[in-house]
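On clarity, I found the account of how folds are encoded harder to follow than it need be. Since the whole study asks how a given chain folds, the encoding of that fold should be made plain. The format is easy to grasp once an entry is in front of the reader. For illustration, here is how one protein appears when written out as sequence plus structure tokens.
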Amino acid sequence: MKFYTATEDEILSGKITDIYFDRTIKTLEHLGINNVEVRMEFHSYGLPKGYSWAVFTGLEEALKLLEGKPVTVYAMPEGTLFKEIEPVMIIEGNYLDFGVYETALLGILRHESSIATKAARIKKLAQDKTVLFFGLRALHPAIAPMADRAAYIGGSDGISGAFDKDIFDIEPSGTMPHALMLSIGDNEKAWKAFDEAMDEKVPRIALVDTFEDERTEALKAAKLLGKRLAGVRLDTPSSRRGNFRKIVQEVRWTLNINGFSHVKIFVSGGIDEEDVVELRDYVDGFGVGTSISMPPSVDLSADIVEKKIDGKWIPYTKRGKWPGAKQVYRCSGFNDIITLLEDKPIEGCKPLLVKYMENGKIIRDLPSLKEIRNYVLEQLREVQTL
């Protein structure tokens, strides 16, 4: 038995690829073609239905994969909100030097951008309410760090991996599962033991729907822990939920009239965009899992769009795609203009693609994870639509 995961060496060596890329290289070599200078563009010609933008995520890992290879890379900064057709990254070089990495590069960019985009949509809808990502159990454990990173970039206020402090220097979020109450057999005893066992920096948020109804357990927890209780979490399963908003309102009312207005309410369990809209006026935060872990796919693809012929770059691509390597200028009001990469700059607008790698060497400092997240949040405040 084994874990069916690729090693870092297998990814970096190009072994993790679709076989037809490997066969393409062999065919070109068979013909004696050993130098095909191209510009390959990564873009989405079809965002998920109802999406007007997505969040470009995964650049750091893409550069890690290409580092040391004789290519030049232009890209949007990680965390940039982009629209359909706009290139998020361009690789310039001999196709034989990087063609086998297309599978891995698309997997990195597509998966991470999809998770970050969904997290950003949830955060945008949640407005000033807290969003915590609890989706690791929906994914293979080998990619748990990637998922937490992408969800955090997208705007999640907290991530739940026990490893997050070591890898990202971020304190993980999360308090107790139903298993704690079920193992002890008494909810009040479990809440009290948790309070006694945990470090003071861990917020006391009691799960209040294990044995009795939410109103009853929430009030019991509040009376037991008093001012030490920061909040309660409702993880009510769909089979018992009924009208979730009315349950939340009932809990809030009961806590308030008994002097526990300081106790916040968090909800979790199958939360998606429509739930956030329905509940955001009545809760203090959301624990969101599967809808972020397994989101609609941001359909990124990679296409050769220019080829160097007789020393000049010539627009050159398959039908259905816009020929020519492109630049994107962001103007006021989130209005974007697409031009050819080497066209004259547009005055008053910001070019989004910048050079990150020259002949395999990274030439630009990469931002920290928190800086990328802040960049996303700034854009979310500016953008008007989902």
Remarks:
- The longest helix spans residues 102-126.
- DSSP finds 15 helices and 18 strands in the chain.
- The chain has a mean pLDDT of 97.
